[in-house]
Please model this.
Amino acid sequence: MAQKSNFEEIFSFLHGKFSNETEYLQAVHEVLEDIVPVYNANEQYKALDIVRRISMPERVIYFTVSWMNSEGRIEINQGWRVQHNSAMGPYKGGLRFHPTVNLSVLKFLAFEQCFKNALTGLPMGGGKGGSDFNPKGRTDRDIMLFCQAFMRELQRHIGANTDVPAGDINVGAREIGYLYGEYRRLNNKFEGVLTGKGLEFGGSYVRTEATGFGLIYFLEAVCKHRGSKIEGQTIVVSGAGNVALHAALKAVEKGGKVISLSNSRGLLLNEDGLTDTALKWAIDNHANRNNILADMADEDMGKWLPDKKPWHLKCDIALPCATQNELLEEDANTLLDSGCQMVLEGANMPCTNEAQARFLDVKIVYVPGKASNAGGVALSGLEMSQNAMFNQRDASTLDEQLYSIMESIHQRCLDEGKANDGDTKYVNYLKGANIAAFRRLADAMVAQGV
Ligand code: GLU
Model:
């Protein structure tokens, strides 16, 4: 029998079960508003209760990581892998090591990942994992010991055709190397079970750059659609990690003026625009510095402003590339007051629901991370296919593929994101991304039965 359904009913079902998982409920809320009407218009979706099933993870794995650090002391951390949906391919999504990691954060990330992966058009399901371990200030040896202990637990749940983790915050090439080594030793298998690997052992060219570069390729598609250009525009970037730095570099290459980077301790400001030399230096050095932005200021690459966020800066384009919920309603108002025209998310869910609502209300360009930061996982999909064929494609071929995937995600958002209020020019990228991803995912689930 078809399920009676509306937004409140489904949301209150999830709220009743998971009321303390605020980030997860926030991410689901953001999607449900757009997809429930599509669901209600489709008898098959309703008959198979697709929306509730899409909202809940297929499996959540929890484990304790007990490990002995390099001083011989026992440390205990929590570890998770959320295997959200496998209708479109092996579970796929990163691992995050950060003290703020908990089940709610990983469930939101895994849920978003399914939609993001669906938008890439590649055969990948969605998942996410990680630990509350804080790698900041730890020795290389402790990082290796932790990664090995984490993988001793995780390895029994993953595989090249089952679940393929990658990096996320604080999990980069070094951590993936240690995790991969432990998997290989325990399983006696050299397979594409992780992405983001080193180029010497199954990694792919362009994977490191892909999320940040992909964000700017998406921005270019938006500009082209509006008849404008990146060249000459003032751009504010938050964050100072892999995504932020590569986005800033590509934006500068396209002629944009990038005036900021930031981290949890403050802001690097350069009103004349950061140079590509400065950004390349930061890319080469950020992994082994405690505060790369303060170091950049010491090298005369900008001014270091402690405890400041970048949203008060006057700009045409804002690219939040740090972390979830970093851009609040008041920040959205400040950006709008100073004339910001576009907000494209490089991080996952950096804008709160209230900030998003402001951007949608005034109809500036607002692109959710599931569309604009999908370049990273898209390149992971290409790494998986190279691993399956035991080959390695060259950098320029992969960069072209990344470009065309970002263009096609932009097109999918256009197809589903047109306004229904008679405004032919406005594109609601959030609605477009949510609906386009939902249809692919829902159709895959319908085709495979219950
Ligand atoms: N952590 C990245 C993301 O948020 C990449 C995931 C992957 O490559 O599997 O999309």
Summary: The mean pLDDT is 96. Residues 395-416 form the longest helix (22 residues). The radius of gyration is 21 Å. The longest strand covers residues 74-85.
